[in-house]
Structures are given as structure tokens and as C-alpha cells.
Amino acid sequence: MSDVIGHYIGGRQVAGTSGRRGDIYNPALGEVVRQVDFASQAEVRQAVEAAKAAQPDWAAQPPLRRARVMFRLKQLLEANMDDLAKVVTEEHGKTIADAKGSITRGLEVVEFACGIPHLLKGEFSEDVGTGVDSFSMRQPLGVVAGITPFNFPAMIPLWMAPMALACGNAFILKPSEKDPSFSLRLAEFFAEAGVPDGVFSVVQGDKEAVNAILTDPDIQAVSFVGATATAEYIYHTGCAHNKRVQALGGAKNHMIVMPDADMEQATDAIMGAAYGSAGERCMAISVAVAVGDEVADNLLERLMPRVRGLKIGPGSDPEVEMGPLNNRQLFDKVNGLIDQGVKEGADLVLDGRGLSLQGYEKGYFMGGSIFDRVTPEMEIYKQEIFGPVLSVVRAPDYASAARMVNEHEYGNGTAIFTRDGDAARHFASTSKIGMVGVNVPIPVPMAFHSFGGWKRSLFGDHHMHGPEGVRFFTKLKTVTARWPTGIRAGAEFTIPTHG
Length: 499
Known about the structure:
The protein has helices at about 40-60, 65-80, 80-90, 95-115, 115-120, 155-165, 180-195, 205-215, 230-240, 265-275, 295-310, 330-345, 380, 400-405, 420-430, 465-470; strands spanning about 5, 5-10, 10-15, 20-25, 30-35, 125-130, 130-140, 145, 170-175, 200, 220-225, 245-250, 255, 285-290, 345-350, 370, 390-395, 410, 415, 435-440, 455, 460, 475-480. The chain is α/β, with parallel strands linked by helices. The chain folds into 2 domains: about 5-250 and about 455-480, Aldehyde Dehydrogenase, Chain A, domain 1 (3-Layer(aba) Sandwich); about 255-440, Aldehyde Dehydrogenase, Chain A, domain 2 (3-Layer(aba) Sandwich). Strand 6 (about 125-130) and strand 7 (about 130-140) form a beta hairpin.
């Protein structure tokens, strides 16, 4: 792999010309492994010009042909899964198994995009008036862009780009500068699968590249995933420049544990959902709401030894369950929030700070932490910690627990663990949350449904992938037609094909 990660514009990798670069770290070592070029506004504009030139011919391709490109992309990703997972692990830090899992969830969106001929079908009404028919169609927007986060360097680009391209758009990806190498591999696979030069581009960079995307007059839509403050900025800035925007932000996901819950199942669920990927997931469970002191005590009794026993180390080790945090800034933030929780009076029953691993002393490693008796007034309850920290909140009854979920400013995901169908149905129906799990801790929808939260977890009207993804990356056109009578077209006797 190159020592410097550049851009991908016009069907080839190109070195940056802005003179600005950033360091890429291996978070297990805490050391720089390579650098990444940061794009200027002019370089973003080069990608836009290439996309503008290539998009009309790509959009003119029958959807069936674009679907066949997606089939080939799927095969390439599957064939290179092991190597791609290593790329993700080296720059992000998550375990190889978790990296493969994230790529697989991206692959499922590619599989969904393979059905684009069906997904783009419109509606038809005969005789809306005498001799008048009406029909609708969905057509591409043109040039669109995606800005993706460090925590899923493979999955989120695969949630965006295949849907955009299958719909007939040209797509410009701005990946996180912290783990950008997967983006260039993806560009190579798109090209090998049959995407024409210019239809898929990658511009690396920081806020300068982001602002260039948000203000460019030829970019019609922007899809974003990241922190809430940035999501709000992306949404308002993009909309102010007449763009369609979907901006997915942060989360504070609660899991209610009812007195009748299967406690072994609930414990297993929390372990994976709170500490998987070191808590660096927007769908991580960071708050366990125990209904009753007995449930809280039982839950903690089961959790404490398992969190202490987490196998922590470099993600490349197949025996490891939790790798390091991705970067020093996040590491310091999580440590600071643990300090804040102690000051605020929460009971730190398990402290994961101060972990040092032989041979990896500079790595951004933390053990799992647990706070008990957290209350809604505390910053550790309000803020998205984005690390391996679980807050246990004690609620006197179901109504109080459900109210906590609904009153929080975030509304990404939530879950309830119970055997009571009535409670589960009520919770699913009344939660002001975009994705709800019943005895499922991380209710991320499959690719043929759509992903997205409510409240300050999503800015914009469309969720990601699934039917909502098709709607986001297309515009609706309705045609009303009347034809003169007596005109006949000649008969065709061969089966029409797109061969």
C-alpha cells in the first residue's frame, strides 16, 4: 500500500496538489503508518467536472446493465473480503471479524442495488381522462456526493455509492481522513466491475473538501453520516445551496430490561452492543435502563465479570474481542467523560482507564467501563460517549423507562428486552425513535428496509438504503399522454433485449 493516499478522479488515482496532508495512524500502535492528501476546492471541482461529463451516458444505460455492474461488484468484494478486512482493521482498529461483518452489511446493500430494474419501476394509470393515460418514473439527480465517518470506512460508503450509481447518478466520495485506504480499493473494484471513468470519484480531505462539496453548484445531493453537530452543519449548509441532504448524526441508544426479561439473553446482548467495536457505533447500546433495583443488581452481577474478562488487544489478533479506540482525540474525550461522570456522582463500578498492553503501550486501548445509578441530568447520560462505557439507569417502572427514551434529544435506536408482548408492542408503537428492537439489541434494518433515526439523529427527510435510498437518489417525474388515433407502428417479431 502506498505511503501516501491520494484521490481517484477520472478513472485513475491521482496525487494531491494542494500541498496539505494528514497523518493516518495504526490505533493499536499509536503510530503513523501513512499519510493522506487533502483536496483543495479546485481538486473537488475536477472530480465534479469528470462526473458531469460521464453521468449522462451512465444514466442512459438501461437499469438492467447498471444492475449487472452491481453483480460484478458484489463478486469482487466477496473475493477480496479477507484483504479488505485487514485494510479496515489496520487503520480503524476494530477486530478482523467485526471488519468482515461491516463489509458484509455493505454487501447486502450492493445485493439490494442489483434489483434496481424493479426498484425504479413507476406507476401507470389508464384512462385518467378520455383517451388519456398517466404514468410516473424515477430519474437520477445527476452528480451526488457522500461524506462518510471513520467508524465504518467500508460499510457506509457501500450504503451510499451503490444505491446512487444504480439509480444512474455519478457519485463523489469524501471518506474520513482517519482511515481512507478502503476508498481507493472500492474505486478500483467499481472500475473493474464496469463503472465508466468519472462516474465514481474519491476526494480525500478535511473541512475544506467538505465545504467545496456543500457549495458546488453542480452537486445535487449530499449524504452524510457523522457527529450531530457536523450533521446539522452539513444539512443547513447544503440546503442553503439548494441541495437535497440526508445527514445522519449521533445517538444515545437505550436498552430497557424488564423484570421478566431473559437475563442471560439481555446480558449477552449488552456485551456485544455496548463493547463491540469499542463502542464506536452509532447504534451501540450505551444506556441500560433496568426496571427495578432487583433487575439492575442482577444485571450488574452478570455483566461485571464478563466486562472484566474482555479479551482486548490489536484487532488483527483473531482471539481479541475488542480493539483500541480509533484515535487519540477520541481516547482523550472518553477518558474525560469518565472523569466527568465520577464528578457528577455516578457510581463507577468498573473503571477501564489506564489499560496498558505489552508491545502496544502507545495504542489507544481502554478496558470496558460501567457506571451505575446514572441519572438524566448527568453529562454522561446526555452526551454520546462513543467508547466502551455503559451507563446503567434505574427506573421504578416501565412507564418511567419509556419516558426516558422518548425525552432524550437523540432518537436513533432503542431496544426492549421482555417476554411481555403487550409491553413490547406498546414500546415499539410509542417510541419516538427511528429503529426499535424487541429482544434485539442493535436493530439495524436489513438492506431492503431503510436505516435512520428521529429527532437530532437525522437531519433531512430520507433514511438510508432500501426504498428510502432509491427515493433520495432519484426525482419523480409524472407524464400524462394522449395519442392521436389511427397511427400504427409496425410489428416486431423478435424478443427485445438489452444485449
